Amino acid sequence: MSSAQPEMNPHRFAAWCALSELFLDTALDDADIAVIARQLSATGIALPELERIYEDEVAPVCWRNLRAPAGAAWSAFDRSWLVTEIERRRSLSVLDRVPFLHRLRIRRWTRDSREDWLRVQRLLAD
């Protein structure tokens, strides 16, 4: 049995990387938001699916970074770590089958990044 991981969808990977920037402990200015929106637009993924990726794939693994005590500022999440953690979480998400609990978890995961996500959404909608 091979230990190689299946081929990663490059568009989804690009979306993960762009969306993870919403969870860095830095203030995002309009230029930063515009870059994230351009990166997401370039994936060709529709806005409703990007919202799902933000809430169900990226937020669950990145949200704690915004809750951690202040430390050194990161310029990005390690991409290998990001892929590994998202894939691991996707295989374990049993509670996501209970809609009410899942919505509560999404609110917790996205509380600190939601305003920036809404800024990105407005640019994508234009």
Percent of residues in β-strands? under 5%
List the domain count as a whole number.
Answer: 1
Low-pLDDT residue spans: 1-6
**Element string (H = helix, E = strand):** HHHHHH
* Count of DSSP H/I helices: 6
Report the sheet with the most strands, covering strand number, pairing sense and barrel closure.
none
Q: Mind telling me the C-alpha Rg?
A: 15 Å
Class from secondary-structure proportions: mainly alpha
In round numbers, the mean pLDDT is 84
Count of distinct strands? 0
Q: Tell me roughly what share of residues is in helical segments.
A: 55-70%
Shape: globular
Distance between the termini: 47 Å
Note down, in words, how this protein is organized:
The chain has one domain (10-125). α2 (30-43) packs across α6. It starts with 9 loop residues before the first helix and ends with a helix. It is globular, with a radius of gyration of 15 Å. The protein has helices at residues 10-20, 30-43, 47-62, 79-92, 99-110, 114-125. The protein has six helices and no strands.
Quick overview of this protein structure:
This protein has helices at residues 10-20, 30-43, 47-62, 79-92, 99-110, 114-125. The chain has 126 residues and is mainly alpha-helical.
